[in-house]
Design brief:
By secondary structure, the protein is α/β, with parallel strands linked by helices. It has one domain: 3-Layer(aba) Sandwich (Rossmann fold), CATH 3.40.50. The chain has 11 helices and 10 strands. It has helices at about 40-45, 70-80, 95-100, 110-115, 120-130, 145-160, 175-195, 205-210, 235-240, 250, 255-264; strands spanning about 1-10, 15-25, 30-35, 55-60, 65, 80-85, 165-170, 195-200, 215-220, 220-225. The protein binds adenosine-5'-triphosphate (ATP) and magnesium ion. Keywords: ATP-binding, Cell inner membrane, Cell membrane, Membrane, Nucleotide-binding, Translocase, Transport. InterPro entries: AAA+_ATPase, ABC_transporter-like_ATP-bd, ABC_transporter-like_CS, ABC_transpr_PhnC, MetN_ABC_transporter-like, P-loop_NTPase. GO terms for molecular function: ABC-type phosphonate transporter activity; ATP binding; ATP hydrolysis activity.
């Protein structure tokens, strides 16, 4: 369904993403790992067309989406909704309106200006919030919610777009372990129950191992590992994180694994 072919992004002389290729045949939960500057965010931003590729192709269900423009590009951006580390909500706007923003790509500017949302969209937004366990916060301003709750609003906004793919750039990096687990559980459910593909940049190995069916490791813009969590041995992890000593078990084996004990 998704075919990434030799995707490359150069910033001047710096090649941030270097001929990355991989295929997703069926809905999957994929974690992308790698040290800072490996090119993880740039890769996701190219997939979502937030930034243009220098070379290569993104083919989704047989259609090249690499160079789409205007309404076609916006439709693709709905098909692969993105979630960010810093939630990117409108802080002073209420939660439901933030979720309804997820339909913007498909609506007229005029309807948007006057906040005219169809009743069925409002019901759907509330249903999604309910499913994520935060419907009670619907009328509150987004800024009044905790980080974990805000990230779940961001997930609701993404789901509102009815995406085939959910892209998440370090979705739990700003959250405490408890909320990190809730958000990862939600992403997993969105994959399993809705059959959506989730591609998440993750900063800890344990999270990738625990939640993903497939892990892609990047180093210096290239894919250096693509396999199952079981294949991701400590030796492989050391390769992914580089041979200069920046990898250590203690810096990467954090947080979520210990939660079962803490919150059981
Ligand atoms: N807008 C930009 N202009 C110039 N260089 C950029 C830009 N965005 C990213 N880069 C460079 O591209 C490379 C990859 O950056 P990227 O943000 O994709 O890495 P990352 O793997 O997401 O890192 P982190 O784990 O710190 O988020 C880095 O060398 C970075 O400096
Ligand atoms: Mg990044």
């Amino acid at each position: 369904m998704l075919d990434i072919k030799s995707l490359t992004k150069a910033f001047g002389r710096n090649t941030a993403v270097d001929a990355v290729s991989f295929t997703v045949d069926r809905p999957a939960m994929i974690g992308i790992i790698g040290r800072s500057g490996a090119g993880k965010s740039t890769l996701l931003r190219m997939l979502n067309r937030l930034t243009d590729a220098t070379e290569g192709q993104i083919v989704f269900e047989g259609r090249d989406v690499t160079a789409l423009k205007g309404a076609d590009k916006r439709a693709w951006q709905s098909d692969c909704a993105m979630i960010f580390q810093q939630f990117n909500l409108v802080p002073r706007m209420d939660v439901v309106s933030n979720v309804l923003h997820g339909t913007l790509n498909r609506r007229s500017t005029l309807a948007t200006m006057f906040n005219l949302y169809p009743e069925e969209d409002i019901h759907r937004a509330i249903d999604i919030l309910d499913r994520l366990g935060i419907a009670e916060h619907a009328p509150k301003r987004a800024e009044a919610l905790s980080g974990g709750q805000q990230q779940r609003v961001a997930i609701a906004r993404a789901i509102m777009q009815q995406p085939k793919i959910v892209l998440a750039d370090e979705p739990i990096a700003s959250l405490d372990p408890m909320n990190a687990q809730l958000v990862m559980d939600d992403l997993r459910r969105i994959h399993e129950e809705d059959g959506r593909t989730v591609i998440a940049n993750l900063h800890t190995l344990d999270t990738a191992r625990r939640y993903c069916d497939r892990v892609i490791g990047m180093l210096h813009g290239r894919v250096v590992f693509d396999g199952t969590p079981a294949q991701l041995t400590t030796g492989v992890a050391r390769d992914i994180y580089g041979a200069d000593g920046s990898f250590s078990e203690s810096s990467t084996s954090t947080d979520i694994a210990s939660l079962d004990r803490e919150y059981a």
